[in-house]
Amino acid sequence: MKKDTKNWLDMVDYDLITVRQMFETGRYVYVIFMCHMAIEKALKGIVCEETDKVPPKTHDLIYLTGIGKVKLNPDLLDFIGMINNAGIVTRYPEDLSKLVSSYPRDIAKEYLEKTQEVIKCLKQNPALRE
Predict the structure, then answer these.
(1) Least packed by Cβ within 10 Å: which of 15, 53, 80, 90?
(2) d(Cα 28, Cα 74) in Å, to the nearest integer?
(3) Does 130 score more than 80 pLDDT?
(4) What pTM, to 2 d.p., does this model score?
């Protein structure tokens, strides 16, 4: 495994700790944002290994999934599409109060659980085998 790839995966673990802390403190918008970031970094680690290049500077999870030749079950791919869209509104909110009300505790919990499932699958990607 390349040094850069290991760094991406270390950031994933760091971000997941942050996600859990944000969840515990009720910062649910940031739970969604950091879930997106953790998946993005896991995908960039795969892209780094798969292409032997620095991953592109993008937040588009669908694009990264394609470049990394990532295979996931349809349920997880649907979630990646969903959080990909959520990543945009949490990064650049037009109305913070509306955004906060859109992501209550139960929704944030679902995103966190599904993110953990996605990352578990991504970390088993053949490109990441040492």
Answers:
(1) 53
(2) 26
(3) no
(4) 0.94
